[in-house]
Structures are given as C-alpha cells and as structure tokens.
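Why run this: before we spend reagent on co-expression, it is cheaper to look at a predicted model of the complex and decide which construct boundaries make sense. The entries below are exactly what would go into the expression plan.
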Amino acid sequence: MEMLVALAIGILTASGTFLTLRGRTFPVVLGLTLLAYAVNLFIFSSGRLVIDGAAVLQQGLPVPDPLPQALVLTAIVIGFAMTAFAVILSMRARADLGNDHVDGSIRSQQNDGDQR
Amino acid sequence: MSHLPILPILIPMLAGILLLLPPLRTTLTRQRIASLVSAGINLLVAVVLLNQSATGEVAVYAVGDWHPPYGIVLIADRLSALMLLLTAILLFAALLYASAGEDETGRFFYPLMMFQALGINGAFLTGDLFNLFVFFEILLIASYSLLIHGGGKHKTRAAVHYVFLNLVGSAIFLFALGVVYGSIGSLNMADMALRVRELSGAELELAKVGGLLLLVVFGLKAAMLPLQFWLPRTYATAPGPVVALFAILTKVGIYCMMRVHGMIFGDYAGDIADLIQPWLWATAILTIAIGAIGALSSPSLKRLAGHLVIVSVGTLLSALAINTPAAISAALYYAAHSTLAGAALFLVSELISEQRGGALDMIVRSRPVAQPVALGITFFITALALIGMPPFSGFIGKLMVMQSATTMMQMSSTWPTLLIATLFALVAFSRAGSTLFWRATGKNSDNIKVSSTKYAAIWLLLLAAPLMSLFAGPIVEFTAATAAQLDQFAQTPEILLNGGNR
Amino acid sequence: MLYWIPLLTLLGTLLPLATRNWSRTACAWSTAILPAVALILVVIQSPAVFQGNTLVEHYPWVTQLGLEIAFRLDGYALLFIFLILGIGLLIILYARYYLSEQDDMGRFYAYLILFMTAMLGIVMSENLLQLWAFWELTSISSFLLISFWSHKTDARKGARMALTVTGMGGLALLAGILLLGDTLGTFNLTEILARGDEIRASGRYPIILILILIGAFTKSAQFPFHFWLPHAMAAPTPVSAYLHSATMVKAGIFLVGRLYPSLSGTDLWFFLVTSTGTATLLVGAYIALFKHDLKGLLAFSTISHLGLIMLLFGLNSDLAAVAAVFHIINHATFKASLFMAAGIIDHETGSRDMRKLNGLWRYMPHTASLAIVAALAMAGVPLLNGFLSKEMFFNETVHQSSLGALSWMLPVLATVGATFSVAYSARFIHDVFFNGEPINLPRTPHEPPRYMKIPVEILVGVCILVGMAPAWVVGDLLNNASSALLQGDLPEYSLSLWHGFNIPLMMSITALILGLVIYNIRERLFAFQAKFADRDAKLEFERLVQLTVEAANNLYARLETNRLQNYVLTLFIFTLAVTAWPLMQIAETTGDREQLPPDWIAFGGILTLSLAAIMTLVWHRKRVIALISVSVVGLIVALIFARFSAPDLALTQLAVEVVTIILLMLALFFLPQSTPKESSPGVVFRDLGISIMVGGVMATLAFAMMTRPLETISDFFTANAKTGGGGTNIVNVILVDFRGFDTLGEITVLGIAGLGIYKLIRRMRLSLPTADSSGRAWSSDTHPMMLAMVSQALLPLALLVSAYIFLRGHNLPGGGFIAGLITAIALIQQYIANGVFFMKGKLRLDYQYLIGWGLLIAVATGLASWMFDRPFLTSWFDYLNWPVVGKFEVASAMVFDLGVYLTVVGATLLILSNLGKLSTTERPTEGENI
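The model came back. Tokens follow.
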C-alpha cells in the first residue's frame, strides 16, 4: 500500500513539475494545482498510513497521526488562495500584455519589453 | 502576564483589518493617519522589545497557552528584536513616503502594507517551523498584491514571474516540512534541535534532505545564487515605498538560515552539524560576483540598487559560511546597514525618476533633475554608504565581515571578492551619479513640487548611515551578544522549551 | 586636544557654505579663519614636538575591530601639517582671485577644506584603520574637486579616473592594513613602528608590502599608475596647485615614509620601491619635455619628482630618507608656486599652450620673475632649494652599492633624469617668457590683481631662503621630521651649500649643460617624438572601463535570460542537486515498519489517478480536457484521504476542488482554449527528465518515511483533545485550538488573496469572446430557467447543511472552513443561475467587509483570553443545558470558527462574484481608490 501511495505522489509531482515548466500560464496553473495535490499527499503520508482509523476519539480504534492532517488542511486552504491569485493574475497578464505567455511576450529574450 | 512578544504581530494585523472597515476605510486621510499611527506604535513596541532583549532576557510566548513543544511559541530574543526594529523602521518610512501620493494609485494600499509587515514580523518571531511557513505565505501573498499596486504592463509582467516562481518555492517548502516532520517528528524548532541529535541512519539522511530543501526555500527568498535572477527586475518595477519595505524580504531568508539552520542543523547537531556551510561557501562568492557584474551592467538606478541587494546577500552568506560568532555578529551589523541603506537608495531612485521626465531613472543623458543640490547630496551619501566608504556604516560593516575571516583560506576567498565587488560598486556609482546629475542637457522646464515628506522618509532611513557608524561600538556589542545568544540556543535548546529563562 | 586640528577644519567646511552669498572676499576670509586657528593650535603644540616628543591621543570607537579615534603629532606629521595648512591658506587666498563670478565659490571652498581635513587626518592618524578612512576621504573629496566644473566632459572623466585608480589602490591598501593588523594583533602605529622586525620576519611580509605599496603608488601617481594625474589637471588650477604639490600625491609618499621603519630594509623593498621610483622619475621627466600645455608639463614634472622621492626611500639608507624628506619640502614649495604662476598666465592670457605663449616677460615682468625663480629651483640651480636636495639625492645614488657591480647605473640614470628636468625647466622659462612674441592669444596679457601674486611671492621667498640658508630656515624642522620618520637617531649630514668639488656637483653641472643642449635641439626631438602616436591615457582608460562594462553586460545577458521557464528549471535542478547526496547515503530505502497490504480498490484508485495525471500531461494543450482530468485527480486525492481515515481532509479537498474548478472554468472563458506547441523536442525531453527525477526523489522520500516508525508529539494532542480542547474531532481541535494560530494565519492569507485579486480584477480590460476557439458560439441563454428554479430551491437547504457542518465541526468532521465553502458555493450557484443583477437586488453584502469582520472576530476571540490573563488565543469551553437542545457545548473555539466561516465566505465570494461580473456589463470601472 505504501508503495502505491508513494507511486501516486511521484507521478503527481512529476506531472506537476513538467507542467510548471511550460511556457503558457494556464498549463503552469494546472501544474501548480497538481503539485499542490502531491504536496498534500506527501505531508499526509509523513504521518504514516492508517486504515479504518478513528476519525474522532473512540475507544479501541487506532488513531492516525492527527497533526499532519491539520497541516494538510492549512496547506489546502493556503494553496486554494494562491491558486486563485495565480489564475486571476494570468487573466490580468493576458489582458495587459495581449498574450498568455509567462514572459508576457512570445520571445522574451529578444524583445525584452521592460528595460527598467 | 506580558503580551509584548505578540504585539508586533497583532498591531499590524488589527490595523490592517480595521483599515478595511468603516469608519477608517472611507477616506484617504483617515487611512493615512491611522496607518502612520499604528506604524508608529509598532516602532515603539519594537524599541521596547529591543531594550528588553538587550538585558539578555528571552521572552517565550506560548500562543493558546499550549506549551512547547506542542503549541506554537513566539520567541522574542535579541535576534528577533533586531529584525523587528528594522522592519518597523522600514514600514514607517515607507508609509511616510507613500502618504505623499503613492497610496492613491490603487486600492487597499495601507491594509496590504500592514499585512505585509504582519507576515514579516511573524516570520521573525515564531519558533515553530510550520507556523513559519504560514507567515511566509502571508508575506508572500501580501507582496504579490503590492507588487501590482498601481498597475501597468511592467508590473504585471514582473508579477507573473515573481508569483509563479514563489508558488513553486512554497510547494518545495511544504515538501521540506513533510520530510522534516516525517523524520524528526516535531515542529517546534528547539524540540527539533534536541531530537535531531538522537537521529541516525536513514532518519538522519532524511532529516538532512529536509534541511537542504529548506536551504533551497530560504535561498530563493534571500536571492541566493542561482535563485537570484528574479530580484532586480521585480524590485525595479514595484512602487518605491513597496520596494523599500521589500528590502527586508531578502534578509528574512538570511534570518531563517541563522535561526533554523543555525539552531537545528548548527554546530552542535552531532552528525548533521553545519549542514549547509559546504553549500554556502561557493554560493556566497558567486552571489557576490554575479551581483557585482550585474551592478556594472545595470541600465537604470533601480536595477543597480537591486544588484547591490544581491551583493549584500552574498556578503551575508559568506559571513554565514564562516559561521563563527564573530561572523554572525558581522552579518547582523551588515544586514542592518544594507537593509536601511538599500531601502533608502530605492526611494532616492524613485525620487530621481520623478524628476527626469521620460528618462526616469535610466542612466542616460537627459534633462537635469529639478533639485540638483538636495537630491545630489542625498544620493551621494546613500552611494557612499552602500559602496562601503568611510565614514558611513557600510565601511564598518565591510570591516567586520572581512575581519571575521580568520584562516588564510577564508581570507583568500572572501577578501578579494568583497574588495573587487566594492570597486565595481564604486565604478558603477560614479558612472551612474555623474550621468544622472551632470550629463544633463537643456533646462528642467516643468517645475516639480517634491513634497518634503518624501525627503523626510528617505532621511529617516539615511540617518542610520552616519549614526550606525558613530555608535558602532555599542551596536557591535549588541550584535556580538546576539551571536553569543544564538550559539547558546544551538548548544542548549532546552532554554527555549522551558520558558526561555536560564 | 589634538583632535581639534582636523575637527576645526571639518567644521570649516560649513562656513563657506554659510557665507556663499556674501561678498567673495568675505567668503574667502570666513573660509580661512578655522584653518588659520588650527595652524595656530599646531604652532602652540610644536615646541614639545621640537624637543623630540611624540604626542598621542586615543579615544575608543569600535574597539572590537581595533578601530579607534587616535591622533599622533610627531616631527614627521608636523612637517606635513605645516605644508597642508600653510599652502592651503595661500591657495584659499589665490582661489579668491582665480575663480570667476559664475563659479560657486562656497561649494569650491567647502570641497577644498573637506579635502584639507582628510589630509590632516591621514598625517595625524595613530590608528591605521582610521588612516585608511581618511585616505578614502581624500579620494572622494578630490573627486569632487577635480569634477568641480562638472559641465565639462574632461572634468567628469578625469575625476572618475582619479577616483577609480586611487580607489582601487585604497582597497589594496585596506587589505594590506588588515593583514598587517591581523599579523601583529594591533593597528596602532606606535606599536607597528616598534615591531618592524616581526613584520619582516613573518611569512606574510611580501603580500603585506605589495598591497600597501600598491596603495601608495596609485596615490602618488607612480609608474605605471601615473596616468591619472595629468587628467586631474582638468580641475581649476588652485586645486592642481594644492593636490599635486603639497597634498594628494604626497599622501602616498607620506605613507611610505610613515611605515619606513616597519617595512623597509629588505631587498624586496629596495627592488620594488627603487625600480618604481626610477621608472617614474625618467618617464615623467622625459614626457614633461614634450608637453605643450603648461599644466601638462608641470603635471609630468610632478610625477618625475615624486618618483625621485620614492627612489630615495627605496635606497634603504637613513641619509636617503632624510634627503627624501628635504625634497618633499622643496618640491612642495616650488611646485605650488609654479602651478599658481601657470594659473595666473592662463587667467591673464586665456591660454596654456606654450606654442602660443611667448615673450610674456614684457607683459608681466613681476609674475615672470617669480615663475623663473621657481622654475630654476625645479631645475636644481644653485642658491635655490631644489639644488640642495638634488645634491643630496646624487650623493645617495653615488654612495649606494645594492646593485653590486652595476651600482654605477643609478647615478647615471639620476643624471639623465636631472638633465631632462633641466631641459623642461628651460623650456618653461624660455618658451613662455622670451622666444619672440605671443601668437594670437585670446586676451592681451597683463599683470594679475596684486593679491593674486602674494601666495606666489611667499613661496618663492621660501625657495630662496631655504636655498641660501637651509640649516637656519628648515634645519630643525627637517631634523625632527627625519628622526620621527626613522624612529631613531639621525645620521650625520650637513645642510651647507658647499661640499667642495665632488661627484654630485659634477653630476649637477653635467645635467645643467646637457639639459640646455637638449633644450636647444628640442625641435628635432619634437619631430622625433611626433613619429609616435601620442596615446591618450584618458581614452585608453575609458576604453578599458567600457570593455569591462560590455564584458559584464554580455556575461550577465548570458546568465540572466529573463525567462520564467529558466528560473523554475534552475530552482528544480538546484533542489535535485542538494537532495541527491544525502539520498545516496540511505542504504536501505524500505524501513522496518509493517506495511499495509495493498487491495484492489486502492490499486484501482491509484491507477485512475495516475492515468488522469498523465492525461493532463498529454492533453495539456487541449485545456478543457486537461482541466477535467485535473478535477478527476482532485477527486481521487479526496478519496485517498477518506480511505486512510482522514474525513476532514476528504471533505475540505472536495469543497476546495469544486470552487477551484469553477474558478478555472471562468478563467478558461477568457484565456485561449488551447496551448500552442512551442517547446522543441529537446526541451520537452529535458523537462521530462527533470520532472521524472523530481517525482522520483519525492516518491522515494515518501516511501522511505512511510515505511519507518516515528515518535512524534501527536500523542499529546490525542490525549488532550477532549479534556483540554473540549472536542472529540482531534484534527479540528488542533486547527481551532492547539494550532489555532496557524488557522488565523491561513484565513488571513485567504482574506489578503481576496483583496489582491480584487485589485487584479479592477481595471482589467478583457475582450469578451463570443465564440470559443473552434468557432462554436457560447450559449446566449445565460441563465437557464431550470437551473434557476432548482438552485433557488436548493439555497436554504445548502445554508442549513453548512450550518450543521459548522456546528458539529468541533466533535465530528466539519468546521468553519468547510461550512464557509459550502455557503459560498451555494451563493455562487445563485450567481450562475440568476445573474448579477438579480443577486445585486437580493444580496446586499460588501464582501470585503465580510472578510474584515471575519478576521476581526477571530482576532477578538484571541484577545478575549487576555482578560483572563492568558496568552493570545487561549480557548475556553463549557457544557450548558439548553432548554430544547439539551446538553450542549459552548466553546470560544466556535466563535473563532465563526470568524473563519465569515472570512472564507467573504473571500470566496469577493473573488468569484467579481470574476463573474467580468463576463457581464457589470464590469468594475474606475472609481475612488481607497
């Protein structure tokens, strides 16, 4: 089971990484989302895996490590806020710069718009 | 009980919130007054904290009354107090400068500045690694929003780079936290420092990975080579007062290396001791080099300022690489100096670009500035301070860093780099200055009204240059004591677990 | 009270600025006051010094760095102070008449006095670091002085060159001083002078010596660093007269003399100093002859004389050192007067070109006679001071034998140098004052104002007096200075004019005769010299700087691509680099913790997840498909959480998922529907490689962790959740209580994001696409009736659910955040279904107020605990018996959770509703920017 979860984390991270390396904003945002999923699973897994554990305090059931879960919750919320900002920012970039390239221009190294 | 340690977090937070609500949010004047007042109080608190910490007292504040290592603690020691004071000064100066007009160019300026300060202060205070992440995110999201303040193509373009890069950075931060927790099993820094000494085998190696991932994260924040390229452009496009506050951001990265790596992976961490130093040596030298080269090739004054920030980061890293109490003490003095002087330079270049019409702060022949004398003197002193010329603070800082290199190997690697970088800065500044102020054509037709408020803000920062040099004796005493205190924490983290009092 | 001497002059910099608007004379006088007072102070002190004492004062500054305010007054310093202040005062008087109406006199005097202060600081420093500080100050203030006429390109470039060269030397000097201090453990001169043998013995001696000498040589314009000096002539002549006779260039000489006892006496010293000195002496003297510009000639003669002094110091003989000191005095006097004379000529004729300036004797006999005397002194003609020191110099070169069998070379070279100096002195005299009539000068020359000549008269007077009765005039001063320099008793020497017919005299006579011969055949020499292209050091230097800058540009442009993809790539590569090594150290990846048995459900789940992730990769260009597959991934992740007993995470993940997808959908409405194919196969391959490695590393880490047991702090939470936190849902209790501070931060992030996004959306100008990329028109039926009906019916239900989720949160999965999201989603659905107008009527809510209130409530809850003298966010709970509900828990944590709820609703709606508005006529427009 651990192997499977690790595999999932690996695949998510890899695909997320690849997408963040793309040149257009939307794929990058998707990549960041995937990375976020991977990260959440990763932190979650740092508390080790427990099946049929107690969601809430009950007698006799194994209790999974609650701390990583709390951390993941915080991470999810923050991740949501950040993703939202990134999405709107890429829309704003499209509006201001007329294209959705992460450098604001298709061939940024030549016509580097801002000399400032 | 004393709630002093948490005030630097609560004051900007409450101020930020109240600025969003009536009656404060309705008029600009109220916003200005309210934010300046709260920034003033914040500054006051910082001073009080500094005095308190100067007695050697370490305030450990257990939030929610859950004691370490279980709850989140705030640690107000010498180091935090020093950084908080710097932030408070920057915040006040930045708001003062902004109150002369920058604040009208977009919404939520003051609340966001407050939240920015909240994030920075929190990062300087917390003794909990995950809580540090949370405050990192606060200061990041605030900086994202401030970066695009005022709008415009350049800002949007820079923002895309800055935001996306830092989002990846945050992801790496979380991976790091996962590894660290998964191998050490705690989040309280002091507790981790204790636990890490017990580790061995695979757990130890995992902890190392965690620590090094943290180096990547902090390095990105500190603009350490090879993660520094984003800085000059980003800082050059952001609004002046915002960048003035940003001047502390790179130091946040440095601070975290001192705090986290210094304590958890520091000299006394057994098999994992001095985890990052091997990496720091190379990066420090190269960071200084790239910064100096960039400074020489800067097309505009703000870019020059940005590259000097990178040089200062490299200088600090080299001190961290030497990693003796003397070096840490030098780093602290130099950090204080470079933060204030750097912020001043950003504001000065903002002022210059306001007065040269289309040429802005580009280093090209253009019409003369409106106030050659006042602006010239201000620029000249800022330049001297940043180059490291006597009699200003940069000179003392450079001396300290250079003297903290003791072995021939340390000298031969740091001294030449530092001195050549100084020469490059000297050349860059003399070219920039003589072009900006002297290679003028025609007359400055439109009479620009420059509010004295802006000068007041700049001089508030710039006064540090002579004063920090004049009172270098006592200041160095303080930084030395700070370094000693950090060393003591690294040696016996228990201090921080039971109330901080020896 | 020694510190008063530099302090007075420092204060003196302010006076001229204060009086700049008074009459020029008044300004000059007020400038002169404080230096004069300082001079008097020195005179008062001098008797003690003349008795051979050394006055020293220490004041602590940064003792930790060995940096202190320490002043020292001995014979050697005294000599220089007299030169600096004495000649300085004369310069002030001279400049009063030299500067024109347009020049800002106050600024000029301020710079001048600042420079004077720096020089005083150097010669009076007892602490070497302090000496260095003043050293740099001279570089800076001379930069200001040379560039005084900043509108002239020459002035700017000359100043920058001087600053760069001397600045570079200064940095080398700093390194040398630090190394020296590190070797001896002190920066105090007294000690350093006393412990010369230690220094010479230490292995670092060569490095120290070379570094310090680089500093001195650059400052004193020694070959090959001499090129900056002639271009510093762009400065107003008073500046040249001051900087290049008595002060700036003498600083290097001073330092060499000051450290003579601790550094000299070795072969290395002899070799470095003597050879540099000789080279400088000859080069300077030779070039000087070919300069048609009056100041150019004087500049190179200055270089040559500096070389002469340096050479003397290099000889490692005490007597030579005495000669050096003597020549310092003489050169200062005659060179200062010559510069001033040149200034007068320039001032009155409007030209400095010796091809035009001829026969001025008739027009300005008084000035002429003064200049001629000074020039003769420079040439070393008997009965003038120049002659005496030159005799001593010859004598030294004759009586040294360091070169063994080749020792005869030095005297010969010395004679050659002297010959040329006679030649150019002759040219100065004959070309300018005789030799026919002036050739079309801008102005018809005449005598200058009376007072402008006084400084020259005084100095020339000194030249003659010293020349006539040396022992009587400068005997004591010289003795004191020399013994202070040598830190020991003086060698036997006599200052008398006549030593009988000896070799030095012969050498002088030879030099005089040959010099005149050379001057006579000058035309041929000029023709010969004209064959070689005259290399302009300024251009050379500018080109060098330009090259450096271009190199920097190219290098930086290559490194800094300003492309995000490269930045991110670097970030990932760096990450791999740092993590690789420790991971390789892990012998066995699999730990000994008992693993869970895999089952088919999990297998299927992971498989779907992987497929979905890969689909996203493959089809990331078809954005809608990619989006859908991403949402699939999100769902599975939620399921995984549920499977491994984390219902809270599952719920939250689900809720966030929904909102995120709505957001991305809206975004996709404005962004292009597809991504063009840009990356070359190579790049794709590279990125894939990096990604797989990163993924691999993270997977390995996760596996290595999961398969190992871990002792954490979590048991505490499990134990205290109910008793201490008053809740059975441990995760929620951690969120709102144990680590409530994190949650407070987290909702702050959410709130700020809301504000930031609002900033982004305002003024966003997007063209509304009427059709998607493949031409299908968007449905015009914006608000389908069915959806409207259903969603309105659902709204109350949804709100009820969120209320329930909220309340049970503390003890069962749920809580403020999830509840908030559900509410937000419900309301958003209303937007989607009924449109903005409808909602504006229905919903009167300012979302940023909602954020504000939410955060405020949360913080207030935290502050409440202060009333019970508990730390921020300390929770409180109790069980009350409510009439209907029965036993029910009330906890401060729930109020806190309410804050969370409000913030979440506010932020989410602020984002989504405004984004929604973009697609309608309700776009936000320009307005008040509060």
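The mean pLDDT of chain B is 93. The longest strand of chain B covers residues 59-62. Bring this page to Monday's planning discussion.
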